[in-house]
């Protein structure tokens, strides 16, 4: 793929975000901005990319996506380093499982603070920057693009799991603002989409305690491919959907979920 612009990836210290950052470099993006709250692991991702791709400029910016000032300063730093942001992948998120009657308000607030508020703060700051910049030529001579954003929601934003009310609600909300802003900013040449992965083998799954009744095996058994996905397989979707190759794709969801055998919610169009 052809990536003439600048990619920004949150959650780049681990899992899907790290895989996405590495794939952008492998696919020829030469200017990367990586963000995460885990500074040591974030720097490790940067070093690994630089070791493998000598011609790629990578900046790693410790960021707490729940903080407005931290997110705004991430975008400002990205722009002062590279001048613009073209492919923004908002991946940072957390999973706090639990049924409502055993869930504290603090857990609910944390779940929403990272997943929903954090992703919206990133999207808002990225849109604000993208509106200021001139479009660049898209890959393969297609339509010029002012910018593209991909938010990582989840299958839990398209259907419910009976033991993840807060996580599901936080991911449904992401799809709401993704589609709304996707429609609104299309006229400005900015695309906004959501990626909705199924069960993916990342450290996040380690956050689900055995006794939690989340039943990952059952979730995987509902997937037609009968295996969890790899973070690299989700990264492919993020890289494609923000690239010029997806120039006619906006305000929608893409679900790398191994094929759902059962799908309870059918009204998301
Ligand atoms: N793994 C799955 O099965 C799965 C399925 C569907 C959706 N998702 C979503 O994919 C995204 C990435 O998750 P993952 O599976 O790669 O998990 P992960 O735990 O490997 O990565 C999540 C990253 O987000 C970062 N992060 C958390 N809070 C942050 C904050 N306040 N500020 C900045 N960074 C923060 C973490 O430090 C971590 O590096 C999440 O949004 C998650 O909800 C994951």
Automatic annotation (TrEMBL):
UniProt KW NADP keyword: yes
Keyword presence, Oxidoreductase: yes
Molecular function terms from GO: oxidoreductase activity
Cited Pfam families: adh_short_C2
Keywords: NADP, Oxidoreductase
InterPro entries: NAD(P)-bd_dom_sf, SDR_fam
Similarity comment: family membership: Belongs to the short-chain dehydrogenases/reductases (SDR) family.
Name of protein: Uncharacterized protein
Species this protein is from: Exophiala viscosa
């Amino acid at each position: 793929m052809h990536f003439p612009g600048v990619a920004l990836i949150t959650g780049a210290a681990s899992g899907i975000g790290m895989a996405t950052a590495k794939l952008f470099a492998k696919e020829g993006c030469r200017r990367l901005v990586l963000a995460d709250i885990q500074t040591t692991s974030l720097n490790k991702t940067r070093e690994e990319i630089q070791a493998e791709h000598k011609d790629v400029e990578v900046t790693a910016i410790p960021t707490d996506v729940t903080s407005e000032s931290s997110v705004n300063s991430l975008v400002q730093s990205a722009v002062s380093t590279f001048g613009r942001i073209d492919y923004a992948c908002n991946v940072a998120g957390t999973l706090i499982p639990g049924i409502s009657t055993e869930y504290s308000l603090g857990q609910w607030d944390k779940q929403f603070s990272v997943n929903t508020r954090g992703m919206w703060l990133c999207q808002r700051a990225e849109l604000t920057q993208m509106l200021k910049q001139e479009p660049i030529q898209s890959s393969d001579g297609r339509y010029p693009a002012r910018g593209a954003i991909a938010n990582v929601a989840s299958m839990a934003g398209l259907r419910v799991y009976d033991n993840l009310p807060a996580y599901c609600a936080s991911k449904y909300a992401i799809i709401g603002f993704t589609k709304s802003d996707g429609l609104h900013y299309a006229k400005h040449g900015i695309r906004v989409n959501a990626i909705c992965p199924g069960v993916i083998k990342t450290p996040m799954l380690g956050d689900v305690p055995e006794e939690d009744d989340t039943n990952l095996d059952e979730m995987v058994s509902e997937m037609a491919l009968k295996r969890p996905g790899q973070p690299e397989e989700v990264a492919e979707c993020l890289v494609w959907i923000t690239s010029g190759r997806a120039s006619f794709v906006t305000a929608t969801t893409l679900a790398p979920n191994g094929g759902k055998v059962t799908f309870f919610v059918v009204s998301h169009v």
